[in-house]
Amino acid sequence: MSSAWGTAGNVYPSAHPLARHKLTLLRRKTTEPKKFRELVAELAMMLVYEATQDLPLHLEPIETPLTVTQGATMAAKIGLIPILRAGLGMVEGAWKLLPQAEVWHLGLYRDEKTLQPVAYYNKLPTEPTVQLCLILDPMLATGGSAIAAVDVLKNWGVSRIKFVGLIAAPEGITALHSVHPDVDIHVAAVDERLTTRDDPFPPGFIWPGLGDAGDRQFGTG
Ligand SMILES: O=P(O)(O)OC[C@H]1O[C@H](OP(=O)(O)OP(=O)(O)O)[C@H](O)[C@@H]1O
Ligand SMILES: O=c1cc[nH]c(=O)[nH]1
Ligand SMILES: [Mg+2]
Fold first, then answer.
1. For residue 87, what are the contacts with CB-CB under 8 A and spacing of at least 6?
2. By Cβ atoms counted within 10 A, which residue in 25, 126, 165, 215 is the most buried?
3. For the chain, which residues make up each domain, given as ranges?
4. Is 212 in the pocket of ligand 1 (CB under 6 A)?
5. Is residue 17 classed exposed, middle or buried when 0-12, 13-18 and 19+ CB atoms within 10 A define those classes?
6. What the protein does (predicted)?
7. Which of the residues 137, 184, 191, 212 is marked catalytic?
8. Is the shortest distance between the CB of 146 and ligand 2 below 6 Å?
9. pTM for the whole structure
10. 111 flagged as catalytic
11. Could you read off the pLDDT of 98-149 as tens digits, one per residue?
């Protein structure tokens, strides 16, 4: 799968028609929280499928009812890292594909005025328990939250990390890529830009985007 976005070599917007269709339904302002949550879960499953195309496999002989043949099973321990709150809705879909994955929550919210990430929850054990981490967060806006999450995971001792989101702003991709160029970014779409003070929406939101992904899932907007 080749990257099709801008200068960053590791950004993978999904080209799948179903992803584009479901993202369109998700963006609509009339989509209610129940439908929104279903779409987030479905898109998460599709994007995790795409993000796991290079997983290492362990080859082993197996017996079918007919004969012995070569089998292949997953060789890496995987951690799903939902960023609270909005990333929570992506766990269900990701877990359907990776039922053996460990789930480690990170709590980060973006300060409304400074747009800086504020960490409020982290129960990672001292030693890493997984080899590959998939960060789950629908929105990559300024990139501050994603950078903070990758910082935490690298300090934990995990070196293979991918970001799986729904929509990214170019500004967020550039920021994440400049600090952590080794982190692949899998999204359903790369949007135009972030909002500024000249826009009718508060600054720092993804344009055209879908609004606040947490509020729309949890009905708090
Ligand atoms: O790239 P950034 O500029 O850091 O913005 C992205 C972050 O903003 C949203 O979370 P939010 O702060 O709204 O918290 P919530 O999930 O609790 O609503 C989103 O889910 C990301 O975590
Ligand atoms: O557009 C945005 C930006 C950050 N967080 C969101 O939920 N939406
Ligand atoms: Mg929010």
1. 81, 135, 136, 137, 138
2. 165
3. 11-52+79-218
4. yes
5. exposed
6. Catalyzes the conversion of uracil and 5-phospho-alpha-D-ribose 1-diphosphate (PRPP) to UMP and diphosphate.
7. 212
8. no
9. 0.95
10. no
11. 999 999 999 999 999 999 999 999 999 999 999 999 999 999 999 999 999 9
